[in-house]
Amino acid sequence: MKHWRLDEVGWDRFDPSKLDPQLVPLVKAAAMVERNGTDYAVYLNKVFRDDPDFRGAADNWALEEVQHGDALGKWATLADPGWDYEAAFARYKAGYKVPTDVDASVRGSLTGELIARCMVETGTSSYYTALGEATEEPVLQQVCRLIAADEYRHFKLFYDHMRRYLARERIGVLRRVRIALGRITESEDDELAYAFHCGNEPESVAYVHKRCIAAYMGRAMACYRFRHVERGMGMILKAVGLPPRGRISDAAAKLAWRLLQRRQQRFAAA
């Protein structure tokens, strides 16, 4: 069951005088990725075909992800009335495909699949928190708060199921860390880059991954503050079985913050 509905958002409070032009392309790209949640649900249903409880949870998760996309898409059309959300998403669906013809997780185990999902929800919860705090536009602030809260609940959903499977599969901490790091590095693959292309560039412009990922990441990483990275690192460590608070977490957060700053500068320069 959804925790909120689109008509509960105060759309009439939209204030164009508080728009940041650097954030509008990010929202358009995010709308593409979020709305594509139904394909991920198909994938998860096949991977967890023997677990009806999880399949039901995954279907509900997908409904909320689609609503995230629609909320972001509606805001983007307020910010840019000439933008066609439906047409942009149709381009995205035609060009980016989630592999759904599977009979096993690409992560090597069901526990690994759920760890990867925890990484995604950690990233989105942190990102929408950072995006909501980076804008002064009141409707985008509200939408980001609602989505960030959903994504944190989604983290807990996948984490709880991960603990259940971990009791059976008994994957060690090092392997869990490798899976987590592998999924984090995938944030620079075609999913986000192509979403930026479809959301912001005309069809006459050829898709170039390097250009699009730099355009997206250069803007997105600029929204983060250390507190967002610190909170996200705690969630990551919790998912892989390490203490979410303490020396390891503090050191990891500081390292991640330095790496993020360097990468943001490199992407912005590109």
Q: How is the secondary structure organized here?
A:
Blueprint: H1 24-35, H2 37-47, H3 52-79, H4 85-95, H5 110-134, H6 138-169, H7 173-185, H8 190-200, H9 209-220, H10 226-240, H11 247-269
Q: What distance separates the N and C termini?
A: 42 Å
Report the strand count.
0
* Mass-distribution shape: globular
| CATH class wording | Mainly Alpha
- The whole-angstrom Rg is 18 Å
Give a written overview of the molecule:
The protein has 270 residues and is mostly helical. The chain has one domain (15-224): Ribonucleotide Reductase, subunit A, CATH 1.10.620.20. The protein contains 11 helices and no strands. The protein has helices spanning 24-35, 37-47, 52-79, 85-95, 110-134, 138-169, 173-185, 190-200, 209-220, 226-240, 247-269. Helix 2 (37-47) runs antiparallel to helix 3 and helix 5 runs antiparallel to helix 6. It is globular, with a radius of gyration of 18 Å. The protein starts with 23 loop residues before the first helix and ends with a helix. The mean pLDDT is 96.
Short description:
71% of the residues lie in helices and 0% in strands. The protein has helices at 24-35, 37-47, 52-79, 85-95, 110-134, 138-169, 173-185, 190-200, 209-220, 226-240, 247-269.
List keywords for this structure.
globular; 270 residues; Ribonucleotide Reductase, subunit A
